[in-house]
Amino acid sequence: MNKEQIIKKLEYGSTKNPNNRAPYAKKVIVISSGKGGVGKSTVSANLSVALAQKGYKVGLLDADIYGPSIPRLFGIENEKIKWNKNNKIVPHENFGVKVISVGFTTPSEDTPLVWRSSVAISALMQFLEDVDWGELDFLIIDMPPGTGDIQLSMAEELPLFGAILVTTPQALSCDDVSRSVMMFKDVHVNILGIIENMSYFIAPDTKIRYNIFGKNGGKNICKKYNLNFLGQIPLDINIQELSDKGEIPISLGTQSVKNYYKEIVKRVLEET
Ligand SMILES: Nc1ncnc2c1ncn2[C@@H]1O[C@H](COP(=O)(O)OP(=O)(O)O)[C@@H](O)[C@H]1O
Ligand SMILES: [Mg+2]
User: Fold this and answer.
1) Crossing angle for the helix pair 117-129 and 149-157, nearest 10 degrees?
2) Quick one: which ligand is closest to 67's CA?
3) What is the rounded radius of gyration, in angstroms, for the C-alpha atoms of the chain?
4) Does residue 6 lie in a domain region?
5) How many structural domains does the chain have?
6) Is residue 13 part of a domain?
7) Are the beta carbons of 136 and 25 closer than 8 angstroms?
8) How far apart are CA 214 and CA 129, in angstroms?
9) Rounded distance from Cα 66 to ligand 2 centre (Å)
């Protein structure tokens, strides 16, 4: 082993033979990106509901400790953490998906969690081990952006089935997602593919297509790193409006919005 390899090994810990903190889940999939605001949480929520609609048992863990979005997306932002008689945390359930988030532990939505990453990681380990998930076909994890402690811990503590990366088409987002690609490769996590979100905008009145954030950024990353392209989701006001109201677009959106996510889920299931 040369010096560079040794340093990498020390930094990354043991990701080749990870622990299994979620033996109740058949497949654990992380939804990740280099950047914030590209649509990870929206994708996580819609993919989870889409899988539940297909009859799978699905849990969704919100691992974005510093910016939890899952409670609002599921319309359960006022719920609080609950324990059962056996001292296990009870996940909240909506749209057929069991959901847990640090958002359920704070007194109000504007309470920031000012935690060191060691504390954030122990909270996530508790969500893996002390939640009464039951048996799951899929545990979907909505990750924070970037390539840091939480990503590494998940790769060390779970035998991840794979990672789905979300990017928008512009170069800045693609640069960031490229770093995520390299990180997941380095920590031996299989990349199931890339979703390009906010790919284009079709004006509802004129039907003219605008490539607001550029074109084909996600596809080009796939070509460069030889990854699956899982599909494009355009900027669509229906997605944004329903998401803000806690009405999951794949369940309550327009037919075209449902179709974008359905196509992607089909491709994800082909990989599983
Ligand atoms: N395809 C889309 N069309 C319109 N709005 C979207 C789309 N995808 C995400 N959004 C909106 O963009 C914002 C950021 O999305 P979010 O999923 O929270 O990103 P992230 O989890 O990566 O930070 C949210 O307000 C969401 O409703
Ligand atoms: Mg998010």
Assistant:
1) 30
2) 2
3) 18
4) no
5) 1
6) no
7) yes
8) 42
9) 9
The encoded tokens of residue 179 equal 């770093």
Q: What residues does ligand 1 touch, defined as CB less than 6 Å away? A: 33, 36-42, 69, 197-198, 233, 235-236, 239-240, 243
At 133 the pLDDT is 98
Domain with 115 in it: 23-271
State the CATH number of the domain containing residue 51: 3.40.50.300
Q: Quick one: pLDDT at residue 1?
A: 65
Q: What is the pTM of this model?
A: 0.94
The residues placing their C-beta within 5 Å of ligand 2, an ion, are 40-41, 64, 69
Residues 6+ apart with CB under 8 A from 146: 34, 176, 180
Query: Is 17 inside a domain boundary?
Result: no
Mean pLDDT for 73-96 is: 96
- Residue range 138-171, pLDDT digits in tens: 999 999 998 889 999 999 999 999 999 999 999 8
Cα 86 to ligand 2 centre (Å): 31
Q: Which of 40, 47, 167, 240 to mutate to test the pocket of ligand 1 (most atoms within 8 A of CB)?
A: 240
Instruction: For residue 113, name the pLDDT band (cuts at 50, 70, 90).
Output: confident
Mutate to test the pocket of ligand 1, among 196, 243, 258 (most ligand atoms within 8 A of CB): 243
15 within some domain: no
